[in-house]
TrEMBL record:
It is found in: Membrane. Residues 477-492 have a biased composition (Low complexity). The keyword Magnesium does not apply. The chain crosses the membrane at residues 38-62. This is Cell division protein FtsI. SUPFAM superfamilies: beta-lactamase/transpeptidase-like, Penicillin binding protein dimerisation domain. Residues 258-589 form the Penicillin-binding protein transpeptidase domain. Residues 1-20, 477-503, 638-687 are annotated as: Disordered.
Length: 687
């Protein structure tokens, strides 16, 4: 077998020829360009990833950004800010709630809305209602298992399981991972101070709309403006007043009581208490008696506290003077008799200071008769006693006043009987007698916040609209407003800040207002209101005791409404303090008496002693003698030369004269009617 030719293994390549064509060169060039491009793209991606990594590091580690509100679940509250100086106190509000909070004049929270959730289910998406209910029961301890199983088994697509659960419960249920269970954001109204000002606060319904109190009156404002609504109340004063009133109610075994503290220059209500009361968070479980606000809804005969109005009316109309005398002899009107409980300590004829100090009913009736029934009714209308008090509470009641103004009506109204007014109306009238004669509009709004609050709140409910309409009708009947220059601004005791000038209608002259202040001080220093004195505060006021009207009409014997309307300090009036006790019982300390001088007046004294420093008014015992001397008023003022005072032989308001005049007028009317009938009969005969 022949072998192929064999080439030597050490053949040198030098001799080989490599042929490179143009296509090869072009392909090699393209390949090199592609490599460069790939390296550039890879480098670009590396730079891009490096930039993204740096940005992520900055955004998540070095300088994390706060999440936007739309990125946060609606149930997650805003992180509170550090506020070591409490500069935000009273202005705290949760961004996820719709209803604004309510605070007192110092920023103390009275009402706020808390974020909650409603739990509902779609039964069509549930597999085992029994198992779902057991899981929910582990979180919702009060869940009714049988009822829940029944509802989750219904052929519906929507059923409520629980309302107003806390965010913690919502998270716990959500962690159970139950398909078909959903949440709906909501809010729940909470009153952190419980009983404090419960009747003033009112409450809201299930849809978070106000149904009582300021919650109802300012419903539109609270839902449209998230800024806290600032009231004129001071919870410190409110607490003291409630404490002292509760002690008095317990001591004298009264069935009810109320107290009011009001600024006599601005009309701001600093405290308003009605007992019994209730926890504002338990409105639906409170009794009707506890919900009843005796300060604005309760109607009571004012009793002798109204003698202040009778005296003011007589002085302002020019009918009486400080030196006139009035009979205290009992007056017989039909089968009734107007008399005093005790009259052995004063004479039959009393001067005006004695009438106020000794609180004589017949003498007050004589003053009313001197003025006349027509002027008396006009006075009451101008003072606002014919309309509901224009305060920001829909529960403000319309007073009960006589429809016909007979002689007996004139006399009984003169000493506070035969009519029924809410206590706030008496406080308002008292303030007008001491603040220079200006009739204020009582308000529950802090003075600086009032304009903004009222601008954002137009009453939609008929009750609030009715109160404002009545107030408007009342304002139309009142005289023109006093100019600001006519009312001098008093100075505080420290002289640091001038008192605000009262704004409203002038109903009493400054001169008569000054005299009435001295009369009120006299009642405390030498009259029936001695127990209201609080050393250094120069208290003035008027006691009032009225027999209570029974449920079927008629007066209940030995069952009284005891009240004291007071002012302090009387040398520079700042605040009115009113206390009323419903059906107080006698105690050994009162010696069997249930009149206001034994129960309501000492309660006012205790309140003033405690709240004075809170209101930046401190007792001035160092100058007590000088101040009392300046305000002193003699029981028997001298009669000016050439003036014939009212009194014995000059008593135009003598009921006997009035009765004779009434009979004469009635006889004249009968005679005129007889003549008309006779004339008509003759005309018929002629025809």
């Amino acid at each position: 077998m022949a072998l192929p030719p064999h080439e030597p293994e050490n053949t040198s390549p030098v001799g080989r020829t490599v042929r490179v064509t143009g296509d090869d060169l072009r392909a090699r060039t393209h390949r090199d360009q592609m490599h460069v491009r790939l390296l550039g793209v890879a480098g670009g991606f590396c730079v891009l990833f490096a930039v993204v990594a740096v940005k992520l590091t900055i955004a998540t580690v070095l300088h994390p950004m706060a999440p936007e509100k739309r990125q946060i679940a609606p149930q997650v509250p805003e992180i509170p800010k550090i506020d070591p100086k409490a500069s935000l106190a009273g202005d705290f509000s949760l961004p996820q709630v719709h209803r604004a909070s309510i605070v007192d004049r110092n920023g103390q929270t009275l009402a706020l809305s808390l974020p909650v959730a409603q739990v509902y289910a779609n039964p069509q998406e549930l597999i085992d209602p029994q198992d779902v209910t057991q899981k929910l029961k582990s979180v919702l301890k009060d869940l009714d298992e049988a009822e829940t199983v029944r509802r989750l088994s219904l052929p519906k697509q929507f059923v409520y399981i629980a309302r107003n659960i806390s965010p913690q419960q919502e998270l716990a249920i959500n962690s159970l991972g139950i398909p078909g269970i959903y949440f709906e954001p909501g809010e729940r109204r909470h009153y952190p101070l419980g009983h404090m000002a419960a009747q003033i606060m009112g409450t809201v319904d299930i849809d978070d709309h106000g149904v009582a109190g300021v919650e109802r009156y300012f419903d539109k404002r609270l839902m449209s403006d998230h800024r806290p609504l600032r009231l004129s109340l001071d919870v410190r004063v409110q607490s003291v007043v409630r404490d002292e009133l509760a002690n008095a109610m317990t001591t004298f075994q009264a069935i009810g009581a109320c107290a009011i503290v009001m600024d006599v220059h601005t009309g701001e209500i600093v405290a308003m208490v009605s007992l019994p009361d209730y926890d504002a968070n338990e409105f639906n479980h409170a009794t009707n008696d506890a919900r009843f606000n005796r300060a604005v809804t309760g109607l009571y005969e004012p009793g002798s506290t109204f003698k202040l109005q009778t005296a003011a009316m007589g002085l302002e109309t020019g009918t009486i003077h400080i030196w006139d005398r009035f009979s205290s002899v009992p007056i017989h009107v039909g089968r009734f008799k107007i008399s005093d409980m005790k009259s052995d300590h004063f004479s039959e004829w009393l001067t005006l200071p004695e009438v106020m100090a000794y609180s004589s009913n017949p003498a007050a009736a004589h003053i009313a008769l001197d003025v006349g029934g027509k002027k008396q009714a006009e006075w009451m209308r101008n003072m606002g006693f014919f309309a509901p008090v224009p305060v920001e509470l829909p529960e403000a009641a319309r007073p009960l006043v006589p429809h016909q103004w007979s002689i007996s009506t004139t006399m009984t109204v003169g000493f506070g009987h035969g009519m029924a007014e809410p206590p706030l109306a008496i406080v308002r009238g008292t303030a007008a007698t001491v603040n220079g004669g200006i009739l204020l509009k009582p308000t529950l709004l802090e003075r600086e916040d009032a304009a903004a609050a009222m601008a954002g709140n137009a009453p939609d409910n008929p009750l609030a609209q009715g109160v404002q309409t009545a107030a408007l009708e009342q304002a139309v009947a009142q005289p023109k407003p006093a100019a600001a220059a006519e009312t001098p601004t008093a100075q505080t005791d420290t002289g640091e800040e001038p008192l605000p000038a009262p704004e409203g209608m002038r109903v009493i002259s400054e001169k008569n207002s000054s005299l009435l202040r001295r009369l009120l001080r006299l009642d405390v220093t030498s009259g029936t209101g001695r127990t209201a004195e609080s050393p250094g505060y120069f208290v003035g006021g008027k006691t009032g005791t009225a027999e209570k009207i029974g449920p079927h009409g008629g007066y209940l014997k030995h069952v009284n409404i005891s009240a004291f309307t007071g002012i302090f300090p009387m040398n520079t009036p700042r605040y009115a303090v009113y206390v009323m006790l419903d059906s107080p019982k006698p105690t050994p300390q009162t010696h069997g008496w249930t009149t206001a001088g034994w129960n309501a007046a000492p309660t006012v004294s205790k309140i003033i002693s405690r709240i004075g420093p809170m209101l930046q008014i401190f007792p001035d015992t160092a100058h007590a003698a000088e101040i009392d001397a300046a305000m002193a008023l003699p029981m028997h003022p001298p009669v000016p030369r050439g003036v014939r005072p009212l009194g014995p032989g000059n008593d135009p308001g003598d009921p006997r004269k009035a009765e004779a005049a009434r009979k004469a007028e009635k006889a004249a009317e009968k005679q005129k009617l007889a003549e008309l009938k006779k004339q008509h009969g003759s005309e018929v005969m002629d025809e």
